[in-house]
Specification:
Its cofactor is FAD. This protein is an alpha/beta fold and 448 residues long. It folds into 3 domains: 3-139 and 265-328, FAD/NAD(P)-binding domain, CATH 3.50.50; 149-261, FAD/NAD(P)-binding domain, CATH 3.50.50.60; 347-447, FAD/NAD-linked reductase, C-terminal dimerisation domain (Enolase-like, domain 1, 2-Layer Sandwich), CATH 3.30.390.30. It is 31% helix and 26% strand. It is built from 13 helices and 23 strands. It has helices spanning 14-25, 40-45, 47-65, 79-90, 93-104, 155-159, 175-186, 206-218, 312-328, 356-361, 377-381, 410-422, 427-431; strands at 3-10, 30-34, 107-110, 113-117, 120-123, 126-135, 140-141, 167-171, 190-194, 222-224, 227-235, 238-245, 248-254, 256-259, 263-264, 279-280, 283-284, 298-300, 341-343, 349-353, 366-372, 388-394, 400-406. Strands 1, 2, 3, 4, 5, 6 and 18 form a 7-stranded mixed beta sheet that branches. It has a 5-stranded antiparallel beta sheet with strand order 19-20-23-22-21, with helices on both faces. A 4-stranded parallel beta sheet has the order 10-9-8-14. A hairpin with a 2-residue loop joins strand 12 (238-245) and strand 13 (248-254). Helix 1 packs parallel to helix 9 and helix 3 crosses helix 7. The structure holds flavin-adenine dinucleotide and nicotinamide-adenine-dinucleotide. Flavin-adenine dinucleotide (FAD) is lined by residues 10-16, 33-36, 40-42, 46-47, 50, 112-113, 136-138, 155, 176, 269-270, 302-303, 310-313, 315.
Length: 448
C-alpha cells in the first residue's frame, strides 16, 4: 500500500528544503526524495564548493597583485589542500540536511522518483501518494549532441578534481566557463575557452564583460569566440577538441575537457506522462502560481520550473511561492524583478535589473552613466586594474533601472543596487544614503 503524505517533494536541494520546511511547519505531513546525497546542486556541486575554491584562488590573485607593493614571495595554490578545505564544508552537508529534515519531522527517501499516477511516485519499489507533489528536481548539464560528448567532464567532476590537469578546455562561455577558467588559471593550469557566441557571459553587459576580458588575458586564459565545439576525440595523451570557429575548422588538444555549455531539467526519468504533467518544448507548462496546468496536484520550483533565472535565490523564492499556494490555495505569484547575478571571476562581474538593450526594447527613457574606474581608491587599494560600472536611471522618475559592475567587491555592492531596483528607489535616494567609508559601497553615489 502506498504511503500517504500531504506533500511529496522530488529533489533535496535549495527549493526542496525551503518548501518542505514551510509546509511541515504548518503541520502537514511531508516527504522528500532524492537519489543523490541530500543538499542539492548549490551546496554540494555548485555555488558553495565553487566559492570555497575561489577562496584560495582569489587569495593568490590578491597576493600577485600586491607583489612589489608590500607583499613578497611566491604564493601558489596547493590544489589537494584547497580541495580538502572545500570538503570541510561539503562533506558534512548531506548528514546535516538529513538531520534537519528529521528534526522537523519530514520523512526522507533515497532513490529516483518516478510518477506512477497523477498523485503518486515510485521510489525504488516504495509507492508514495500525496495531495500535492512538488517538482524541485533541478537541472543537469544539457546533452550537447556532439560526437565524443561522453568524454566531457561535468562541472561536478571539475569541482572534485584531485589533481589539476595541465591544459583544460571549457566548452561554452557562460557562468561556469568564466568561473572555472579563473580558478584553473590561478591554480596553474593552461585554460582555453571555446564559446559559440560572439562573446562570453551573454547575460551581462557587453562593455563591462569587455573590461573583464582584459583581466582574462592577463591571467593567460585563451578565449575563443564564434567557436562552436563540434566533436571531441580521445587520444593516448588526452583529448582533441574540434570546433567550427567562424567557419574555419580548428582543433585544440587538452588533458581535460569540461562541459560548460548550459544546464536544463532532465524530465526523462520522472515519467511525467504517468502524471499527466504537460511539457512544451522541454519546459513544464505551469500557470502563474507555479502549478502544472494539466495536473493541479503538481507544482514546480527552482531550476526545474525554468521561470526565473536558474540561480539559488530564485529556487528558494519559487519554493516559498509554491508552498504558500499549496497551503492556502493559489494566490502567490513569483516576482522576478531585480534578481542580482554574479559570476565569481577575479574580480567578480555583477548585474541587476535591466540591461541597456532590455531598457531600450521596453521603450524606456533613461540615462546611462558608465566608466572604467581603475583610478578610484577601491581599485587602487586592492591593486586591481579592472574596475568599472554602468548604471541606468529612468528619466523623469529618477528610478534606478539597472546596475552592471566589475571590480573588487562587485559581488556585494550589487546587492545594494538590487534593493534599489526591486523597491523602486531613486538615484537621489541612493546618492543621499551614507555608506561606510572606505568600502566599495561608498562608490555607489559616484556611479549614479
Ligand atoms: C557549478 C555551478 C555553480 C553555481 N553557482 C551558483 C552561484 O554562485 N550562485 C547561484 O545563485 N547559483 C549558482 N548555481 C545555480 C544553483 O546551483 C541552482 O540554481 C540551484 O542549486 C538550484 O536549486 P534547486 O533546488 O532548484 O535544484 P537542485 O539543488 O539541483 O536540487 C535538485 C535535486 O533533485 C534531485 N533529483 C532530480 N531528479 C530526481 C528524481 N527523479 N528523483 C529524485 N531526486 C531527483 C537531484 O539529485 C538534486 O539533488 C550554480 C550551478 C552550478 C552547476
Ligand atoms: N555564479 C552563478 O550564479 C552561476 C555559476 C555557475 C552556473 N550557474 C547557473 O548554471 C547555469 C549553467 O551554466 P553554464 O555556464 O553551463 O551555462 P550558460 O548558459 O551560462 O552558458 C553556456 C554557454 O555555452 C555556449 N555553448 C553551448 N554549446 C556550445 C558548443 N557546442 N560549443 C561552444 N559553446 C557552446 C552557449 O552559447 C552559452 O553561451 C547558468 O545558466 C546559471 O543559471 C550560475
Amino acid at each position: 500500500m502506498a504511503k500517504q503524505y500531504d506533500l511529496v517533494v522530488i529533489g533535496a536541494g535549495t527549493a526542496a528544503m525551503t518548501a518542505a520546511s514551510k509546509v511541515r511547519a504548518a503541520g502537514r505531513s511531508v516527504a522528500v526524495v532524492d537519489h543523490r546525497p541530500f543538499g542539492g546542486t548549490c551546496a554540494l556541486r555548485g555555488c558553495d564548493p565553487k566559492k570555497m575554491l575561489v577562496g584560495g584562488t582569489s587569495a593568490v590573485d590578491h597576493a600577485k597583485r600586491m607583489r612589489g607593493k608590500g607583499v613578497a614571495g611566491e604564493v601558489t595554490v596547493d590544489w589537494p589542500e584547497l580541495q580538502s578545505f572545500k570538503r570541510s564544508f561539503t562533506d558534512p552537508v548531506p548528514s546535516k540536511q538529513e538531520q534537519s529534515y528529521a528534526s522537523k519531522g519530514v520523512d526522507t527517501y533515497h532513490g529516483l522518483a518516478r510518477f506512477i499516477a497523477p498523485n503518486s511516485v515510485d521510489v525504488g519499489g516504495v509507492a508514495l501518494s500525496a495531495t500535492h507533489i512538488l517538482l524541485a528536481s533541478g537541472a543537469e548539464p544539457v546533452k550537447l549532441g556532439i560526437p565524443g560528448a561522453e568524454y566531457l567532464a561535468t562541472s561536478e567532476t571539475f569541482l572534485n578534481l584531485q589533481a589539476l590537469p595541465r591544459h583544460i578546455v571549457l566548452v561554452g562561455g557562460g557562468y561556469i566557463a568564466a568561473e572555472f577558467s579563473n580558478i584553473a588559471a590561478l591554480a596553474g593550469a593552461k585554460v582555453t575557452i571555446l564559446q559559440r557566441s560572439d562573446r562570453m557571459l551573454k547575460n551581462f553587459d557587453p562593455d563591462v564583460v569587455g573590461w573583464l576580458m582584459e583581466k582574462f588575458t592577463a591571467l593567460g586564459i585563451e578565449v575563443r569566440t564564434h567557436a562552436a565545439v563540434t566533436r571531441v576525440d580521445r587520444i593516448d595523451t588526452g583529448f582533441v577538441v574540434h570546433a567550427d570557429q567562424a567557419g574555419t575548422p580548428v582543433t585544440v588538444s587538452a588533458d581535460l575537457v569540461v562541459h560548460a555549455g548550459g544546464r536544463a531539467p532532465d524530465f526523462e526519468v520522472m515519467d511525467l506522462n504517468a502524471a499527466g504533467v504537460q511539457l512544451e518544448r522541454g519546459r513544464l507548462v505551469l500557470n502563474e502560481f507555479l502549478q502544472s496546468v494539466t495536473n493541479p496536484a503538481v507544482y514546480a520550483a527552482g531550476d526545474v520550473a525554468q521561470r526565473g533565472p536558474a540561480l539559488t535565490p530564485v529556487s528558494s523564492h519559487d519554493a516559498k511561492v509554491a508552498a504558500a499556494n499549496i497551503l492556502e490555495g493559489n494566490h502567490a505569484r513569483p516576482d522576478y524583478r531585480a534578481v542580482p547575478s554574479v559570476a565569481f571571476t577575479q574580480p567578480a562581474v555583477a548585474m541587476v535589473g535591466l540591461t541597456e538593450e532590455a531598457a531600450k526594447a521596453q521603450g524606456l527613457k533613461f540615462r546611462v552613466k558608465s566608466s572604467q574606474t581603475a583610478g578610484w581608491f577601491t581599485a587602487r587599494q586592492a591593486a586591481e586594474s579592472t574596475y568599472g560600472f554602468k548604471t541606468l536611471v529612468e528619466e523623469g522618475t529618477d528610478r534606478v533601472l539597472g546596475a552592471h559592475l566589475v571590480g573588487p567587491h562587485a559581488e556585494d555592492v550589487i546587492n545594494v543596487f538590487a534593493l534599489a531596483v526591486r523597491h523602486g528607489l531613486t538615484s537621489r535616494e541612493l546618492k543621499s544614503t551614507m555608506f561606510a567609508y572606505p568600502t566599495a559601497a561608498s562608490d555607489i553615489g559616484y556611479m549614479l
